[in-house]
Amino acid sequence: MSIALRAWNTASKLPLGDRLFSIGMSVHVPYFGSIRPRVLELGPGRCRVRFADRWRVHNHLGTVHAIAQCNAAEIAMGMAVDASVPPTHRWIPIGMTVEYRAKARGTLTATAEFAPPSWPQETTDHTVDVEVEDERGTITSFAQITVRVEPRPARG
Fold first, then answer.
1. Of 10, 99, 140, 141, which alpha carbon lies 20 to 30 A from 112's?
2. Are 99 and 121 in contact (CB under 8 A)?
3. Domain carrying residue 73
4. Which of 45, 2, 34, 40 is CA-nearest to residue 22?
5. Which stretches does DSSP call E strand in the chain?
6. Helical axes 3-11 vs 66-82, angle rounded to 10°
7. Which among 140, 152, 149 is positioned nearest to 70, based on CA atoms?
8. How many domains does the chain have?
9. pTM, entire model
């Protein structure tokens, strides 16, 4: 079990635990803090992340900036993959394709979901789909993020 998943399983049972976990995640990966994400759900192959519509994440049109949505998609994908990959492996995103489907306003939720494979002993690439939707359920963006997963090199 990954350190992040173990921390989530502990924190999510506490009052305000999801907020504490989300702050800790943003401290560990400071760039993610730019959208003030809140992890709502985390498990192998699934993660939901929410972030609020604030002036700081707006574009020149007054809607939520596309890259803020990409950040949320990357957080959801990364947490879902991290919760799925065994400690003998490591992962890194190597590509992202994004479709912007609607103007984004209001609080948004990014959901990454995939069926975790049995991770082979060779390097493999996997694509994780992430939907970002508004409070009405309208999908504002859709991302496909390719992740390279490989065994950790032997130490020593």
1. 10
2. no
3. 3-151
4. 40
5. 38-43, 46-51, 89-100, 108-113, 124-133, 139-151
6. 100
7. 140
8. 1
9. 0.93
Entry field: residues in the chain: 156
Classify residue 113: in a domain, yes or no: yes
Gyration radius (Cα) of the chain, Å: 16
Residue pLDDT, tens place only, 13-36:
999 999 999 999 999 998 999 999
In a domain, 116, yes or no: yes
Amino acid occupying residue 13: K
- 81 Cβ neighbours under 8 A, 6+ residues apart: 91, 112, 126, 128, 147, 149
- What is the rounded distance in angstroms from the CA atom of residue 109 to the CA atom of residue 131? 8
The answer to whether the Cα torsion of 148, 26, 100, 80 is positive or negative is positive
* Residue 156 counted as domain residue: no
Residue 59 domain flag = yes
- Report the CATH number at residue 69: 3.10.129.10
